[in-house]
């Protein structure tokens, strides 16, 4: 495994690089040889005992966590394939015995039961699954992703239906069913009724209506009981099943309040699960609009739940409306009053860009690393940027040091959080090895599956693989997110907010996605700089910016032209052609090397020598360094009008230095 050689660099030896490349290329070769071949049956007893042993080993290894300090898991980013977009009921069953090697079984569904303990590794988990008779077993692997409720997917159910199963090989060449898109795996917990069973379908008459109502009531009661036991996913499943039955005409016609009651309850559970879209919709669906005291209390509760959901989705105006309605029904309610005060602050931030930064900073800690703040983006707009796709442009003049924008992160995974995971990825498409914060991809996918209203704006971001584009796809079984597209979007748009809460290991670096800032293109002679307060990104002008001008920040600040171009190409996929790069490209490599060495000396000098009360000799040394650096630029016409970037620091030092009296 690659190792961490210092706190924030990751070192891969040539040997390690080759090992990763060879392992993955061997797998690809084997896969191409086996495509369409019949599956080799496993001996159930042996396969289950092998998985049990592996689970035990993984558990013992996980005493210190699934990722050992200083080591990184590695895995391949395979050839992207789209998730299944067909509802379960429209797929035809297939059996384990009929699986073909290295094949996506389009149009099919496979029902299996867990047959062994789950082997939980850092970037995947796997288990043996079997058919109903137990005479066929196969390996099932879930890459990277947790269930919608944040648990290990394979641990959270005992039976599964796999949509359009992909049967392939692991990196080690073992046959496996592989899940890359969480929406391709339907979990069937024994204690959760399947959402596809409508227990009263097709029956009618008074007795049947009462029976249906009773089923809905029982689901509600079971949900309430599960809530008392804090089993939130189970609570959600019972309420969902109850709602399905209670919404049937025969029940909703005679007892419309049952749908409202269950919706109101599910709204609360959805808030606990961070499923904010559904929380808001449920709360609204539960409103009675009646005037009696009891109904007013219930509607007040519903408005409060809708308000919390809207607030956490950043829909402050909608949230304001909900809490104002709540206050009409529950005058003086403390929580609603506090929320309305916070909303007034958020709306002010959003409209004016005025933030109480001192208060925001004082509320941050390792335990509470995220700010409660709105985004301020109205100084900017997204437009086409020639040769760079889209870019962010100023809509008004911004002075040097002025704030261009504030943005609250869409999603950040902090290094000290359990979701943080950096892996060495080998992309079979360009054969490049990268260090990728794959934990962030998983967190983004999770957030989108929980809040499908956010899918479109994330899918609008730039990523090499287009997948199904930005159209939001959903089936009867829930929303669908193409994880390969999210991986590519994350690779080209994520940034690190730095280790604000103590040192972090290189294999657990903090990373996040800021959707609006993701439209900012790179330039080595940027006009903006970003900084972070928790997960709030602040972008400030480093030069005066005129209305209509494009905003640029620097994705890579390396002074070394070759290192910078290499990093920009590997991580961001482009060759920088800014004025500085165009000039440096024309330099003799020996001049670039000399400038590089001098800049290193100058930077060390600036870091070492205080400019205040500097001795005359020290100032002379700085002048010599500045002159030598200037000499590497002067007389070269390509630098006309281009800042002498590497000489800037020493010149700044000289401008401030005052000789000792
Ligand atoms: C964070 S996104 C910036 C927004 C992007 N241009 C878009 O259309 O959505 C990063 C991607 O923009 C492009 N890009 C950014 N700066 C560039 C530059 N100076 N020259 C060429 N392409 C650039 C690259 O494709 C890069 O991977």
TrEMBL record:
InterPro entries (UniProt xref): Gramillin-biosynth_MTr, SET_dom, SET_dom_sf, TPR-like_helical_dom_sf, TPR_rpt
Keyword Cell membrane present in the record's keywords: the answer is no
Instruction: Give the UniProt keywords, A-Z.
Output: TPR repeat
SMART domains per the UniProt record, alphabetical: SET, TPR
Mind telling me which Gene3D superfamilies this protein's record contains?
A: SET domain (2.170.270.10), Tetratricopeptide repeat domain (1.25.40.10)
- Please tell me whether the keyword Transmembrane is annotated for this protein: no
Ranges occupied by TPR repeats: 300-333
Query: Locate the SET domain: which residues?
Result: 378-556
List where the protein spans the membrane: none
The protein here is known as SET domain-containing protein
